[in-house]
Amino acid sequence: MTISDVAGTPASDVAATTPRRAERRERGPRTRTPRLRRYAMTAPTFFTVSYAINPWMDTSTPVDTDLAVRQWETLLSTYRALGHTVELVEPVAGLPDMVYAANGGLIVDGKAVVARFAYPQRAGEAAAHAEWMSGNGFEPRHTRHTNEGQGDLLVVGSRILAGYGFRTDHRAHAEVEQITGLPVTSLELVDPRFYHLDTALAVLDDTTIAYYPPAFSDEARARLQKLFPDAIEVSTADAYVLGLNVVSDGKHVLMPANATTFAAQIANAGFEPIGIDLSELFKGGGSVKCCTLEVYS
């Protein structure tokens, strides 16, 4: 199946002020409406950094697992306080990265794609997520090529934005498109610090994204500019604290607490930022979105 691509002119690192943006400033920020969501999460019971498979991981840096659990519980309780449904996937000993539940697969419109991990250290997570999917009424489907779930497969409205370059194999995009029936737009990542799409791009609602332009190839940036001309472009300082690794219900945006400039940007756009401290889980290269698998209905 052919993957949907959109041509366009390469975007500049610095956003130009377009008439549409100027008009929006005159009108003021939009009123945003939250929608109740369904999430799956895995407690960091066995979280540690015992190997390094991304630039954020340092095996010489101590990890406080008890603190990681408390920070994760704050994220969990915040979702539930907002009225969202959170289901728990049982953690498995020996799989310290299983807390990053977003990487376990993609579930959209009742169709489930199970992750096929790039590194053997995480391979066992796929079976645990497939079991959870089966137990919750989904038929898990597998790709022949590597895919790391919602780490690289982000749903925006009726489209999937799909990252490749470090973890997910570009060839898996066509498989995902065939399984889900949704058009897939491929985006090449070029900076290893942003090894998953969800570290470089945030979905804020069905038509709004934010992203860090230097994380993408020129072609990918052109596609994003064409699809989302009003996208929020995030600074290096906020990107380097994984500020884009967020979860939004269409109004409330749960995000890393220290991405303060980005928080101001999304507040100006009418969203409500909610800072979450996941400093221990940052040591493994993840934050809010990495810990959250959304079940898209």
From TrEMBL:
GO terms for molecular function: amino acid binding; dimethylargininase activity. It holds the Pfam family DDAH_eukar. This is N-dimethylarginine dimethylaminohydrolase. Keywords: Hydrolase. The keyword rRNA-binding does not apply. Residues 20-29 have a biased composition (Basic and acidic residues). The active site is at H196 (proton donor), C290 (nucleophile). Residues 1-34 are annotated as: Disordered. It comes from Mycolicibacterium hodleri. GO terms for biological process: arginine metabolic process; citrulline metabolic process; positive regulation of nitric oxide biosynthetic process. Belongs to the DDAH family. Signal peptide: none annotated.
